[in-house]
Specification:
The chain is an alpha+beta fold and 152 residues long. Helices cover 30% and strands 26% of the residues. It has a 6-stranded antiparallel β-sheet with strand order 3-2-1-6-5-4. The protein is globular. The N and C termini lie far apart (28 Å). The model has no long low-confidence stretch (mean pLDDT 87).
Length: 152
């Protein structure tokens, strides 16, 4: 079974997190990914690593309030949040500007250590895609593997 977390040191650097994210999105056949750490001080998700996010969206994804956007919703709900096609979604989950990623199928999961929120992990495909329950479980399990190392 795939485990991108195996190669992470006890105290990962930003380069380690970027490699982890690149390995993760490749394993899921995705083209974009984000990893955020939960900051208890301001209740926001802070960007740790990203792959494939357009430069104009970087200011928007640096700090995400809990409950806002796909990552914020996954953190708030403490469960995976999926959009088959972000480009046509009308649920209101995706934040304004998210369509600029050109991502269609997207999945964000909370990074949990037990019940404690440590952050979120998100992946995206260029085509519409419904992630299977097994894929959601795999990404959730992978997020749980790295939770202790992501926690502040």
């Amino acid at each position: 079974m795939f485990s991108a977390s195996m190669s992470l040191p006890a105290t990962p650097t930003s380069d380690d997190w970027s490699r982890f994210l690149e390995t993760t999105i490749a394993a899921f056949g995705c083209v974009t990914g984000t990893l955020h750490r939960f900051d208890t001080a301001d209740q926001h998700l802070k960007l740790v690593a990203q792959v494939g996010i357009p430069p104009q969206l970087m200011p928007v994804i640096q700090s995400i309030p809990i409950g806002k956007g796909i990552a914020g919703a996954a953190a708030e709900r403490r469960e995976p949040v999926e959009l088959c096609n972000l480009q046509t979604d009308t649920s209101g989950v995706a934040r304004e500007g998210a369509k600029q990623t050109q991502v269609q199928g997207s999945l964000a999961v909370p990074v949990l250590e037990g019940e404690r929120l440590c952050g979120t992990l998100g992946i995206g495909k260029r085509e519409p895609y419904d992630f299977t329950e097994a894929e959601k479980r795999r990404l959730t399990d992978l997020a749980a593997e790295v939770a202790a190392r992501l926690a502040p």
